[in-house]
Write a structure and sequence with these properties.
- The protein has 11 helices and 13 strands.
- The protein is an alpha/beta fold.
- It has a single domain (5-256), classed as Spore Coat Polysaccharide Biosynthesis Protein SpsA, Chain A (Alpha-Beta Complex), CATH 3.90.550.10.
- A hairpin with a 2-residue loop joins strand 2 (30-31) and strand 3.
- The chain is globular and about 60 Å long.
- It starts with a strand and ends with a helix.
- It binds 1-O-phosphono-alpha-D-glucopyranose.
């Protein structure tokens, strides 16, 4: 079955970025000049998926406005001869077919995905966490769809992390799979655990915020109780799914920035600004001038 829909959970409170997120969604924080959530939406569109489902919540209206048409803004830009910018603003609204569903309680990532059940229906789908920006030639979620299309199973994006970072992630136990099309990148998941202490972690292979999920995950999510942090964890539901279906871990090609963390956010800002045609040169010159 082809993947048509991507779920973007955007209901999180963003406590790590307070006070910036006191009155605005963390997903609207800009890296250079684009909100985090737009990077994720663009990755969905660039991967050829036509539909996105935002799981939103209180105080997140700015996200809906961002992906809507702003007639006033477009009118003003057109009147000032800023046609290119007007086109760019319109394309944000036209990029994908968008639906919204509200997660009424902050019960975690698993609960957020379960909230999208009716909108997803009985088909495999993608999940992107907009905290993670992946800069790659082929969009990360597209790379994972390619794996899904060959194996027909759920796929989680993984990366090796430092021991000190292990307790911030879902961690998998897995065995390598020999695959000619992505040598060294594919693993078969055997077990997984959400945010373990490093001493008990099964490996240093961490799940990052990209998933391809089969619809069987909804049945497991509905049966999953509260786990780490008192929240309904997607990792716990995936572990349950393992009893019925295979799950693969895929070491994606590209560089991932954890923009949900202050240092990661700064790294993303600096590196993505350096790559920009309009900013790269003067910004590099400025950075070099700093006596560090
Ligand atoms: C979530 C998941 C975790 C995963 C991480 C990736 O955690 O629960 O398994 O490793 O995203 O970024 P969060 O970062 O929302 O606490």
């Amino acid at each position: 079955m082809t993947i048509r829909k991507a779920v973007l959970p955007v209901a999180g409170l963003g406590t790590r970025f307070l006070p910036a997120t006191k009155a605005q969604p963390k997903e609207m924080l800009p890296v250079v000049d684009k909100p985090l959530v737009q990077y994720a939406a663009e990755e969905v569109a660039a991967s050829g998926l036509p539909m996105v489902i935002f799981v939103t919540g209180r105080g997140k209206n700015a996200i809906e406005d961002h992906f809507d048409v702003s007639f006033e803004l477009e009118h003003q830009l057109a009147g000032r001869g800023k046609e290119a910018l007007r086109e760019q603003m319109r394309s944000i609204a036209g990029m994908l077919e968008m639906s919204y569903v509200r997660q009424k309680e902050a019960l975690g990532l698993g609960h957020a995905i379960l909230t999208a059940r009716d909108l997803v229906g009985d088909e495999p789908f993608a999940v992107l966490l907009s905290d993670d920006i992946v800069d790659s030639e082929e969009p990360c979620i597209r790379q994972m769809i390619n794996v899904y299309e060959r194996y027909g199973s759920s796929v989680v994006a993984i990366q090796k992390v430092e021991r000190s970072a292990i307790s911030s992630y879902g961690i998998i136990r897995a065995t390598p799979v020999a695959d000619k099309l992505c040598p060294g990148r594919l693993y078969k998941v055997e077990d997984m655990v959400e945010k373990p202490a490093p001493e008990v972690a099964p490996s240093n292979l961490a799940i990052i915020g990209r998933y391809i999920l089969t619809p069987g995950i909804f049945r497991e999510l509905a049966a999953t109780g509260r786990g780490a942090g008192g929240e309904i964890q997607l990792t716990d539901a995936l572990k349950r799914l393992l009893a019925h279906e295979s799950i693969y871990g895929y070491v994606f090609e590209g560089k991932r920035y954890d923009a949900g963390d202050k240092l990661g956010f700064l790294q993303a800002t600096v590196e993505l600004a350096l790559k920009r045609d309009d900013l790269g040169k003067p910004f590099r010159k400025y950075l070099k001038s700093l006596k560090l």
